[in-house]
């Protein structure tokens, strides 16, 4: 469940982290010259329909497949394991304590932060 949530919910508004090619490279036939920047979108990768069928759907029965929420390769998030453990504990405890937790307003009424790169609701009225 946690991995599908991590895949599906954009954790911030920015797309990803720019990378600069050191030598000329041509991944999958696309030529990138040394010194040019590439902006890899973790969010688009997490919704890639070639990897995640019906990728916009939140599907807890989806076949397991690595997502890009913590990045990939040499700069993959150094805190992946503790961040996952914290989320598992927090979400698990919240749902155990409040099994009927629900939004108390239509989701269209939830206001989101527009001033930072982070993605979070300004208020989240709930009922339980
Ligand atoms: C849900 C929580 C978190 C998410 C989704 C997340 C996501 C990411 C992502 C996408 C990257 C970039 C990976 C890349 O460049 O390919 C990253 C890097 C990094 N993260 Fe996290 N992160 C989280 C929590 C944390 C926490 C709690 C810490 C520290 C206590 C942390 C420390 C770092 C560091 C130091 C890097 C840079 C690693 C490097 O460049 O080698 N992250 N994280």
Write the layout of secondary structure elements.
Blueprint: H1 2-8, E1 18-20, E2 37-39, H2 42-46, H3 80-97, E3 102-103, E4 126-127
The structure holds protoporphyrin IX containing FE.
Written overview of the protein:
This protein has three helices and four strands. The protein has a domain of 78 residues. 5% of the residues are buried. The protein has a two-stranded antiparallel ribbon with strand order 1-2. Strands 3-4 form a two-stranded antiparallel sheet. The chain is of the alpha+beta class. The chain binds protoporphyrin IX containing FE. The site of protoporphyrin IX containing FE has 13 residues, from loops. Protoporphyrin IX containing FE binds next to loops.
Entry keywords:
alpha+beta, two-stranded antiparallel sheet, two-stranded antiparallel ribbon, elongated
* Biggest β-sheet description: 2 strands, antiparallel
Q: What is the share of helical residues? A: 10-25%
Radius of gyration (Å): 18 Å
**Helix/strand order:** HEEHHEE
In which order are the strands of the major sheet placed?
Answer: 1-2
Total helical segments: 3
Bound molecules: protoporphyrin IX containing FE
Distance between the termini: 21 Å
Mean of residue pLDDT?
A: 93
Question: Beta-strand level of the residues, as a percent range?
Answer: 5-15%
């Amino acid at each position: 469940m946690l991995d599908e949530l991590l895949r599906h919910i954009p954790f911030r508004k920015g797309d990803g982290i720019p990378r600069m090619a050191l030598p000329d490279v041509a991944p999958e036939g696309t030529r990138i010259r040394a010194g040019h920047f590439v902006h890899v979108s973790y969010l688009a990768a997490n919704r890639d329909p070639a990897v995640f069928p019906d990728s916009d759907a939140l599907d807890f029965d989806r076949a397991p497949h690595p997502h890009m929420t913590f990045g990939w390769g040499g700069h993959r998030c150094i805190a992946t394991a503790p961040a996952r453990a914290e989320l598992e504990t927090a979400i698990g405890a919240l749902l155990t304590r409040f099994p009927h937790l629900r939004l108390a307003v239509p989701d269209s009424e939830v206001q989101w932060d527009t001033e930072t790169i982070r993605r979070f609701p300004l208020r989240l009225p709930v009922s339980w």
